[in-house]
Design a protein that fits this description.
Blueprint: E1 2-10, E2 13-16, E3 19-22, E4 26-37, E5 40-47, E6 50-58, E7 61-66, E8 72-75, H1 78-92
Antiparallel strand pairs: 1-4, 2-3, 4-5, 5-6, 6-7, 7-8
Length: 94
């Protein structure tokens, strides 16, 4: 099993009545675990200890899947799958 950790930073500025208000950087720990399921490589994507999605090989392409609502997206690469899972997670996060 290979582990890779990436910290993503976000810096958001809000314009409020002509004043520029800046929020603090928010660090998010994203962990990607490479596992094998039924002789097929799978990337599991975690935020903290929570599994948010997986990227699975599908012939010459890949499928990115969100755990919360079982959404599936067809992507061209594992990197694109990782980006898709993170984007969709943050878009629908409550």
């Amino acid at each position: 099993m290979i582990r890779c950790r990436t910290t993503l930073l976000s810096n958001v500025s809000i314009n409020n009545k002509g004043e520029k208000v800046s929020k603090k950087d928010k660090k998010i720990e994203v962990t990607v675990k490479d596992i094998e399921r039924q002789h097929q490589p799978v990337q599991q994507i975690f935020i903290g200890q929570r599994l948010i999605g997986e990227v699975v090989a599908d012939k010459e392409r890949f499928k990115a899947m969100l755990v919360a609502d079982q959404s599936e997206f067809n992507v061209r690469s594992q990197e694109e799958g990782l980006e898709m899972v993170l984007q969709q997670y943050h878009l629908h996060q409550r």
